[in-house]
Design goal:
- It is built from 11 helices and 10 strands.
- It is of the alpha+beta class.
Length: 295
């Protein structure tokens, strides 16, 4: 039977660069205790199958919205139905996959930090096993979507604080489903957000600082000052991280050659692309593709 780790129509996923984790998460007293390392959504994931003999470096939570699946972890096997979730503790050998007849739709998160073990222990104490059932909640998926949207917009400090502090709310919705409530999430419309929207719209092109500043009607120097003040990154550095994020998707989910990916991101020199990708992710594009580190 065909088995796939990824490659599903409509899928989306983000892997946080290790450098960003060090800068934004592990050094922050607000989110060092628990933070996201990978996050994604696989709709109707036909033939989905994942086996990790050595486990994952992080804890994993998978939430099934539709369809069916199965998981084997710590010697126990569970059937997963709509509204169910399961936890895979870090470094635990495991296998999970979609039901062939009715493949699941799942939200998934890898998370780490000094308090992550305690979250796993609390779930075990509450449910007795590594699987629970909380039903479907639009509020819960809205929180996930808000987390994903912020991480998709890049790696500035406010995005990271929002996403990872929201992670606790998301995890609490499983631990305390009967008490779970959510408030709507709104986004700002300031010049920095407008410029990030502009970057995303032109992810396949090269932009200069002058291009970005012109879009928000500011001088390059003033725009650069405001942008770095809010995000902690220069506009060009931020734009490059967005390109790296998109490159990760291409490397994982397509068969495009590295040169094609570079050109698709507006970078004509594949060696330059490889250098700045390696600097952000800690490994070359070719090695990243081989490693297959998505959930």
């Amino acid at each position: 039977m065909l088995k796939k780790m990824d490659g599903f129509t409509g899928q989306k996923a983000i892997v946080i660069p290790k450098k960003i984790l060090r800068l934004q998460c592990e050094s922050s007293p607000l989110i060092a205790d628990i933070h996201i390392t990978h996050i994604g959504y696989y709709p109707r994931a036909e033939f989905h199958y994942r086996k990790r003999n050595q486990g994952a470096e992080q804890h994993i939570l998978i939430y099934c919205l539709d369809g069916k699946g199965h998981v084997k972890v710590k010697g126990e096997e569970y059937e997963i139905l709509p509204g169910d979730f399961f936890i895979v503790p870090q470094n635990e050998q495991h296998i999970y996959g979609a039901n062939p007849a009715t493949p699941w739709t799942i939200y998934w998160i890898h998370f780490a930090g000094t308090a992550a073990d305690e979250i796993i222990n609390m779930m075990m104490q509450k449910f007795g096993i590594l699987k629970g059932s909380v039903g479907y909640s639009l509020q819960r998926t809205d929180i996930f979507d808000a987390i994903f949207r912020q991480l998709e917009r890049g790696y500035d400090k406010e995005n990271f604080l929002f996403a990872n502090m929201s992670l606790k709310h998301f995890l609490a919705s499983f631990l305390f489903a009967d008490k779970f409530k959510s408030d709507p999430v709104s986004s700002g419309t300031d010049v920095v957000n407008r410029s990030i929207d502009f970057m995303q719209q032109h992810i396949h092109n090269m932009l200069t600082l002058a291009d970005m500043a012109r879009h928000v009607n500011l001088s390059p120097s003033h725009f650069s000052f405001l942008f770095k003040q809010k995000t902690g990154f220069s506009p060009i550095e931020y734009f490059n991280y967005l390109k790296v994020q998109r490159a990760c998707e291409y490397l994982e989910f397509t068969d495009m050659r590295i040169k094609e990916i570079a050109i698709n991101l507006g970078i004509e020199d594949p060696y330059y692309f490889s250098r700045f990708f390696s600097k952000a992710m800690g490994l070359s594009p070719a090695d990243y593709r081989k490693k297959k580190i998505w959930s």
